[in-house]
Amino acid sequence: MGLFYYLVMKVILAQIASVVLLFSLVACDLPKYIISGSADMTMKLWRVSDGAVIRTYTGHQENVRVVKVLKDNLRMLTGSWDHTLKLWNITDGKILKTYTGHTDQIFSVQIMPNEDFFFSAGFDKTIRMWNMKTGVVVKMFIGHTAGIRAIKLTPNLKFIVSGAEDNVLKMWNVADGTLVRTFVGHKDLIGSVDITPDGAFAISASLDQTMKLWRLSDGTCIRTYTGHTDWVRTVTLFPDGKQALTSSSDWTIKRWNVDNGTCIQTLKGHTNNVCPVILSPDIEYALSASWDKSIKIWKLADGSCIKTFVGHTERICAITWYSPPAGVIITADHQFFDFTNSLHSQKPVSYTHLRAHETLRYLVCRLLLEKKKQ
Questions:
Q1: Which among 55, 88, 124, 270 could bridge 290 via Cys, Cβ 3.0 to 4.6 Å?
Q2: Quick one: pLDDT band at residue 7, thresholds 50, 70, 90?
Q3: What is the 3-state secondary structure (H, E, C) of the chain?
Q4: For residue range 240-256, what is the model confidence (pLDDT) as tens digits?
Q5: Whole-model pTM?
């Protein structure tokens, strides 16, 4: 019985430590974790409270350019310069499926809300629509004359907009793969695109140091935004479409009024190109990653950097917030526990690392039963 009691206490203490970390984050109401992708060919799962790396995922053979978490919060889809996409189990790090077909670097991914299908785009000048389950390419969108760096679905899911190194945006009909419209105006490659929540406009970011706002119905450029002094690498709209965040090779992040084109705020702190920048779910914070190998969390109210994460050995090219599903807790010793698992099942769930013991609830129940017998 000594070993059994030891294991019970080990799990209980780990859970207590997790609760302490959990309460330390209540004040800022941020997601508890971050997942990043890097040119060091890995993804990392970070704990926001203390910056600890919970897990490092390996399997890609080149720069990891895209990380997307699926709705179940147990799986993620990644895209890489090794020409592949991979579906992962987040909790145990196993690769569930590898999607092959692209013949060059992959830069962008969009997932349909039902998660039956997803789109990918890259330097082979194609957009591919995949069946998530079977891994079969069901449709291809061909028309760009240079590598595609960005794709974005419209809110009604009828169209997908792409930006490429041929300096143009293109809008495609998702149903039949036909080209609807080409948007001409940028003087250099387009690396990022976002769509307003009403689906009426697209905003693009370019190596020509500008962003442009386009009316999707007729391709008219409504406004050009200037202020960055180098490549505008990414653009992300706020949920209401009235503001936007951009990241740049001038090492800054800027916040913009979309309607009048003014720069509202500039965030400084990175020491190299800033690549992805995304908003927190409550729109109070921004998360950025850089070629300086760091990730930063910014408080938008005052522009302060409240936390920096360091651990990758090469530039960071992809980031996303992550929250485990209800019932799953990551403990202080970096284990995943599933509290939704049946107490009567004596088998650990497939995505945990539990070998000597099952979930905390199961162990406590066993402890109580043993005491009752005594």
A1: 270
A2: low
A3: CHHHHHHHHHHHHHHHHHHHHHHHCCCCCCCCEEEEEECCCEEEEEECCCCCEEEEEECCCCCEEEEEECCCCCEEEEEECCCCEEEEECCCCCEEEEECCCCCCEEEEEECCCCCEEEEEECCCEEEEEECCCCCEEEEEECCCCCEEEEEECCCCCEEEEEECCCEEEEEECCCCCEEEEEECCCCCEEEEEECCCCCEEEEEECCCEEEEEECCCCCEEEEEECCCCCEEEEEECCCCCEEEEEECCCEEEEEECCCCCEEEEEECCCCCEEEEEECCCCCEEEEEECCCEEEEEECCCCEEEEEEECCCCCEEEEEEECCCCCEEECCCCCEEECCCCCCCCCCCCCCCCCCCCCHHHHHHHHHHHHHHC
A4: 999 999 999 999 999 99
A5: 0.84
